[in-house]
## 1
Amino acid sequence: MTPTVEERISEKLKRIKVKNIMTRSVITMREDETLSSLADLLIRTKISGAPVLNGVGEMTGIVTITDLLNLMGKIKDGSFVHDNQSLRKDLSVKAVMTKNVSTIAEEATLLDAVNMMCTKKIHTLPVVKEGALIGVLGRRDVIMYFYAAVRESIEEINR
């Protein structure tokens, strides 16, 4: 029986390893950096998020444009003033970062990454090896390879 387009795409995604498509030169932030420096970095480098490192280089979180937008929403509606006294005193990356970070192993497949990103609604996925940050997989990386697999699968069927 001839495989469907979906089955072909799935098989192609299973053959692509995260380590082969991840960005190895990771842009990171330190916990003590300001939100202003974070916004500047995200705009200047055209990325949507960055892993956050502590003083000894361990990943302690991730901070994204979504985190900044959530903060902006709180300022706009006034809940910023009432809900978060510590944030008012500390406008650092650590104050707004996501602490429970979803990560993926370098040996995982693109299908694994797609499933994780869709299920958990995340856009920036740190890649780890033995607990150490070795790369990052962003939604642009995933989309580029996913749609290449789609295009290739459709072309195979149309031959």
## 2
Amino acid sequence: MQVKSRHHLRADAVSELETALAEQLGVDMDADTYEKVELDGSEFDIVLVDDEPAVVYINGAPFLTVRGANDYPPERRIVTVDAGAISFVSDGADVMRPGITEATDDIAEGDLVAIAEENHGKVLAIGRARTSGDDMAGEEGKVVDSIHHVGDELYEFSV
């Protein structure tokens, strides 16, 4: 991933970003620096929060990266998976109903979600919900499409 451009966000853009993440995820970001990084040949733009890639823009909407979600744990839009799903989700697999132990009821179809493991609450991936949170657990079917996961190019990005 090559950096196309990099610039500090203006105060109004920082305020919009913080408000969006607070409303979506219940996250209170209070950082010193916010820098937007546009990547060449990537569908993502990243925001470095105190020099760490903590926020990613997906289709123009801000959401936490995996590293960002572990630094600023979300309170909403969380799908929790069991130990059997960890290796699959960490490798970028979509999330299937049988691996889900819990999903917050604030998730609507199409929402971006953080996918966490049940034992320590660490976020393993970011995905897009195919169904509402109250319909996620069950016997069969794919319910979250993986977008970004531990070990992918975005996770490994550094400046």
## 3
Amino acid sequence: MSSDIESAVGGGKPFSIGSVIGETFSLYGGNFLKFTVTGILIYVPVLAIMVATMGMAAVTGSGAFDPNSAIADPGAIGAMMTGLVTSMFFMLLAFSVGSGAITYGAIESKSGNDVGLGAMIGRALVKIIPLVLASIVMTVLIGIGMIFLIIPGIIIALMLIVTWPVILAEGLGPIEALGRSRELTKGHKWGIFGGYLVFYIISMIIQLVLIMVSIALGEIGALIGTLLSYAILLALSSTFFASLYTNLRESKEGVSIEQMAAVFE
């Protein structure tokens, strides 16, 4: 596994998943306000639609836990899950645009360029069709894989994890981007899996704390907490994708971050 986590395949710098994780939090910390606000702006209309069509409880899970006893209410949790399933398309759309915007911002930030929030979202909107189509195909493929004993679904997810950065930085269509992601992640899946697991656990802890604290503040507090948790998770995951993509290319192909960012000029 060690050769999978740290290796140089194309004469570039050694690939280290630890460096990817460290860089993820460094980039997010340096762009915390901009990336988080991007996530908030992306999810506000989605949550508004969800609240209008399904109600506050289904969106926020308010009432799912008794704040005093922390005992779960199966009915409220069921309503929340039903709400999330029925709003899957809107969530997918928001994640595609938000991930594209923040990925672009993260790559530019790593190269030393400072791009504004409007430019980030604008770049994602230009690529909205391939981003959304790729997300749909990925969701279907991963879902099919999950049906077959889960493991194939995880493998597919790891193979396709840098699809969004590929679309943003290389201008490929959705199908070509999926193949390109598979090519870049080849030989590093164990490292990526371990790194993403660490990142995911940290993100889930942050999300859970935000939601539990906000639920205790009532429905409005729960809605704000849900919005913040979505925004932060989007920002962190997208920054991780960008960092992983740039590190893979630096390692496998010897391409510098300046060369990668030059395509945006």
## 4
Amino acid sequence: MIMKIAGAQLGSMWENPLQSLKKAEPYIRKAADQGASLICFPEQYPTGWDPGSVQHVQDREGLIVSRFSDLAREYGIAILGSFRERFQPKPRNTCIVFNRDGEEVASYSKCHLFTPADEDSVYSPGDKPGIFRLDGVPFGIAICYDLRFSGIFNVYAEAGVCCMLVPAAWPALRIGHWELFIRTRALEHQFYVIGVNTTGVNPVDAYCGTSLAADPSGAVIARAGLEEDLIITGIDPDTVYRTREAFPVSRDRKPDLYNRMRAGREGS
């Protein structure tokens, strides 16, 4: 079964959630018209990602979450969006997923906050995975900087996830790392990875899109350019299962051995 997943590579209307969501609507309509089951937006799309900003911090009843829910219901397509979620002692950088009926089915708060930009001084890290099923297919969520940390992707692979969705604000300066990590995470964990990046210049940095998807062999199967765009990727869960069966990397891992090696190193 081929499932279509859309990625909306858009620049935000800076710190203006209402206008950003208005800008998003034609992309949601287009993705639904083209038969996509889900559309994913970049990291903190309604406001733009800013590691130092706590403007528009909202709870689940706020404008941003409510509007994503309404749009999912109106166009009959699942939506993955993100927002600055009210949390104590500091807000969280949170993704939220709505099904076609506008019902929340998953959320995930960014675990690896971007310390080079002091995101950790303003935001609280998450500590739980975000897993949901869409038409029976298991999906997982990671956010931007999480791509650099294989361990969290291993958690999702062990949970049987077939496709990782990674909304991001990945800067143009390090765009080569972006593709490298997406392909590597897909290859080493033998699932699809779809990264949806922002584009354009804003007060934080310069971005160049290049949203892309890699299959379980690490091959790029969809790629956007530098401008605003909608990419649609076809994923096939059976490809994941066949790949893992033919090349059983996860079964050949030796976690007990690794732990003994760590213990031996620490005792030496």
